[in-house]
Amino acid sequence: MRDAEVRALTRECATTTTTPAGRTRHKITGRVFKHRKLTGDQAEWIVLEFVHEAVDVLKQINNDPELLFGYTPARAHNARLVRSIPMRLRIFRDHLNHLLSTPDAPFIPTAPRT
C-alpha cells in the first residue's frame, strides 16, 4: 500500500472472514489511488494477522473518529496528523528492519519510487 492509501484507512478497515475450507482470512479494506479517479477505488488486501493487531494498537493511540491514522489534539479541532505520516511509516519500517531483518534481506524492503 502507498502512504496515501494507508492514510485513507478508516478505523473499521480490518475484517476477518473464514473461507469455505475453514481458513481464516484477515483483510484490510481501503482505497487505491494510483492511476484511478481522484476519489480512488475500493480495494481489499489479504494481510497477516499481525496487521490486524497493529490496527488495534492504532485505534488505541489515535483518537480520530474516522481515520485510522488520524489524531485530533484536544486544543485544535479537526487537526489531523497527516503530513508526518510518510515519515512515521519510514521510521516504523526502519525500526522493524532493525529488529527483524536477516543478513540476507530486510524484513520490509524499500519500495522503489514510482
Structure in words:
This protein has 114 residues and is α+β, with helices and mostly antiparallel strands. 30% of the residues lie in helices and 18% in strands. The protein has 3 helices and 3 strands, in the order αβββαα. The chain has helices at 3-7, 49-61, 85-100; strands spanning 14-18, 24-32, 41-47. Strands 1-2-3 form a 3-stranded antiparallel β-sheet. The two termini are 12 Å apart. The mean pLDDT is 83.
SSE pattern, N- to C-terminal: HEEEHH
Structural class: alpha+beta
Question: First CA to last CA: what distance?
Answer: 12 Å
Secondary structure: helix percent: 25-40%
Q: Can you tell me the overall shape?
A: globular
Radius of gyration: 16 Å
* Total DSSP E strands: 3
